Backbone:
């Protein structure tokens, strides 16, 4: 048995207010479920911690936890290996208040874990101090910080890799949950409901991008509940749109139409949520082969765009529905409807969308959405026999996907590959080159799958 004494684990638990065994157990089990959803295997979801083990961790009686416990602990305290977590508090750090440097270890380790993580940790520590300094559980400064963090996340989401961002959003959502568990004036409670709902909505979108439709639907249901509790029509309409989008991609277009129509019952004072709902509905009607309904939905989306007022009830970024996104939703609709006329319309809408996405500054370019618009453009050109034009778009998509991968883009690439194999020009050099690129992309995807299956 190792010599007993205060551990870094105990200091961090005290700092976060988790020193009561039942509180920590609840956090531990919540982390285990999240880890099972995100990384697998699913058996981790039932992991728990006994009271005796909790105190053994705190007093330094364990240095090498079992595999499941190690993974859960490192998930709860990102960037800190379990061996360091269960070791003594670094010298020079006051008990219960370890510095970021002592938690992270040497400068080499800080570089390994990433500068962005260090900066985020430091910002979160400052935000926590402000929260503790206010006279009540929640005050205007705490809400201002939460809203600022949410705006930063939704603004940067379309341009950042989804996996690392997921962890940051989850931590901020947990912070919102902690605040809701306290006591605050009703006005602040409503704002916290909206903030927590937006964060669950972002997690739903991220789960969808990672190919976890089941987790996305669970997160979306929670987000919608927060919208209900807050009476926030903008959030309710946006979440219904996300649920409709998941159903569309899952091959349930009738459900997508139903959810989009349900979302339309919640009318925000301003914003693009209803334009998005009509555009999703158009794609779903296209998937169902209901031409008249699909075109009517596209027309309604155009009409709502013309009447759009300035401002939005939602924080913008990934939650906004700009014109370029509306254009590529229209191109997808025309692709479903098929035929020479619709192929021409699809190519025109997708081409215009790509130009608008491309015109944005690199740091604000919506990479995943631009790739989907390029896939629509490639499909339209393939349908018209323009293999060289299609190849140009495929090359751009695969280059972006190597840096920011999403399941929806991977699926579209696979679908394009199947269509290409059946194309009359499948034996041309352009087609053979595209197939080789797609195969290499798919093989790289398989090689990058983490242990326990796909995320």
Residues:
């Amino acid at each position: 048995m190792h010599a007993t004494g205060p551990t870094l684990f105990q200091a961090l638990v005290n700092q976060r207010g988790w020193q009561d065994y039942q509180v920590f157990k609840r956090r531990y089990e919540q982390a285990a479920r999240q880890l099972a959803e995100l990384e697998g295997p699913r058996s981790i979801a039932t992991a728990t911690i006994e009271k005796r083990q909790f105190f053994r961790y705190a007093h330094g009686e364990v240095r090498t936890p079992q595999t499941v416990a190690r993974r859960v602990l490192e998930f709860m305290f990102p960037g800190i290996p379990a061996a360091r977590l269960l070791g003594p508090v670094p010298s020079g750090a006051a008990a219960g208040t370890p510095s970021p440097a002592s938690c992270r270890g040497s400068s080499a380790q800080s570089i390994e874990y990433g500068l962005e993580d260090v900066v985020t940790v430091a910002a979160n520590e400052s935000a926590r101090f402000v929260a503790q300094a206010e006279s009540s559980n929640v005050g205007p400064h705490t809400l201002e910080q939460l809203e600022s963090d949410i705006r930063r996340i939704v603004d940067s989401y379309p341009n950042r890799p989804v996996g690392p961002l997921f962890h940051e959003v989850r931590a901020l959502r947990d912070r919102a949950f902690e605040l809701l568990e306290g006591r605050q004036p009703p006005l602040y409670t409503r704002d916290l409901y909206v903030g927590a709902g937006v964060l669950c909505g972002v997690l739903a979108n991220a789960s969808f991008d990672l190919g976890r439709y089941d987790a996305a639907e669970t997160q979306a249901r929670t987000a919608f509940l927060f919208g209900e509790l807050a009476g926030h029509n903008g959030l309710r309409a946006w979440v219904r749109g996300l649920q409709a989008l998941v159903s569309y991609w899952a091959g349930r277009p009738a459900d997508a139409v139903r959810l989009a129509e349900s979302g339309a019952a919640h009318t925000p004072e301003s914003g693009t949520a209803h334009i998005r709902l009509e555009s999703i509905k158009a794609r779903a009607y296209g998937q169902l082969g209901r031409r008249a309904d699909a075109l009517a939905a596209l027309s309604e989306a155009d009409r709502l765009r013309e009447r759009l007022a300035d401002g939005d009830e939602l924080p913008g970024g990934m939650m906004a529905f700009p014109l370029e996104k509306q254009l590529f939703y229209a191109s997808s609709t025309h692709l479903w409807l098929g035929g020479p006329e619709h192929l021409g319309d699809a190519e025109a809408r997708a081409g215009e969308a790509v130009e608008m996405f491309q015109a944005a500054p690199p740091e604000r370019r919506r990479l995943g959405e631009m790739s989907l618009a390029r896939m629509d453009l490639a499909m339209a050109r393939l349908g018209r026999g323009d293999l060289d034009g299609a190849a140009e778009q495929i090359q751009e998509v695969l280059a972006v996907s190597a840096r920011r991968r999403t399941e929806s883009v991977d699926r579209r690439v696979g679908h394009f590959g199947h269509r290409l194999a059946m194309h009359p020009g499948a034996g041309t050099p352009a087609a053979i080159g595209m197939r080789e690129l797609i195969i290499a992309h798919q093989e790289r995807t398989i090689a990058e799958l983490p242990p326990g299956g796909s995320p």
Residues 92-116, 446-455 have pLDDT under 50 and may be disordered.
